[in-house]
Amino acid sequence: MPEATRAALFDLDGTLLDSIPAFLAITRRACRELGWPQPAPGYIREVMTLGRSPIEALLGPVPDPDARRRELTAASMALWQDVFAEEARLFHDTLAVLRHLSGAGWRLGIVTDSNHFVVSRLTDTPGCPAIDVVITREEAPARKPSPSGIELALNLLGLPPTAAIYVGDNPIDIQAAHGAGVRAFGITTGAALREDLLPHRPHAVLDSLSELPGHLAAPQPAAPDSPAVPIVSGTLAQGLGEAGGFLDIPWVREAIALALGRPFFPGTVNLTLTPQAAAQVARQRHDPRLRRFELPARGDYCPALLHAVELSHRFMRTPALLLWPQVTGYPDDKLELICPMPLRSGWVLSDGARLDVRYLTLEEPWP
Fold this sequence. Notes:
The protein is α/β, with parallel strands linked by helices and 367 residues long. It has 14 helices and 15 strands. The strands form 3 sheets. Strands 5-4-1-6-7-8 form a 6-stranded parallel β-sheet, with helices on both faces. The protein has a 6-stranded antiparallel β-barrel with strand order 9-10-14-13-12-15. The longest helix is centred in the first third of the chain and has 23 residues, at 65-87.
């Protein structure tokens, strides 16, 4: 790939900036002011990586969690900037790695859920190379795991996803990178452990930023015309209730159970897609690398395609089949998924919940 036509994009907190101790210090001081118990060991990982409520992690079940959350937020906001300025610093290898990549022809970018004050802890440091694009929570259409921040960075750089990488310390960073179609790297310098990152299938998990250039110098595992299969994200929505009757037909049940490798719940999980995700799904529909099954037409029923996928929400995941009725006018922004369990009750989900759909390739094991 020619120089200046590739981009290395980074998360900030826990990736380029050693700021996790600062967040812990802010919480500790806020708890002291409120007269609350101090955070237990592992508090930051539970909240930032595992998605546990800060109030539950600090106080356990309480009758008024929303009021307690407002108290904690107010106490933290009153002191966070001063504490952050005292505690947060760059990792020892941040500047060296960024300068190396810049000198090797990589354009540099930051995509973070933090704000510009936090970004300035890097960009105002003497010796920091030029950062070509910065996307904070103030510019991104949505926070991670939405891929929208990475997609915006790529648009501003004028580069396709295949020309970029993204490095982050949290599972939502990897999910965002997959959703944007860029190569994802996890790193263990933040709140997450290696075992938190690996299930989300990053290209590699780094233990320090210094390891990154070695991975980028290695041959790419895929040819330029075979980009990595991204994760598609959608929001849970009510269906029309039409699929249940179809899936109750004996020959349909038999064919789908054979494809899924297990019994399934006789109804579909319905996801609504953004226009960008719908276009991505349309491209994936006939990708020869993907594991798929065909349900032939029979009687009054049209043929259908079934893609093998992994469906996930936060840290829950299940194999599933993506159902594509081969009928004219089928909406592009809708996904129907067949699961081995009633997902809404099993995962306690309601409308609007965000789920990720990862296609499985022919090389991957399938039940």
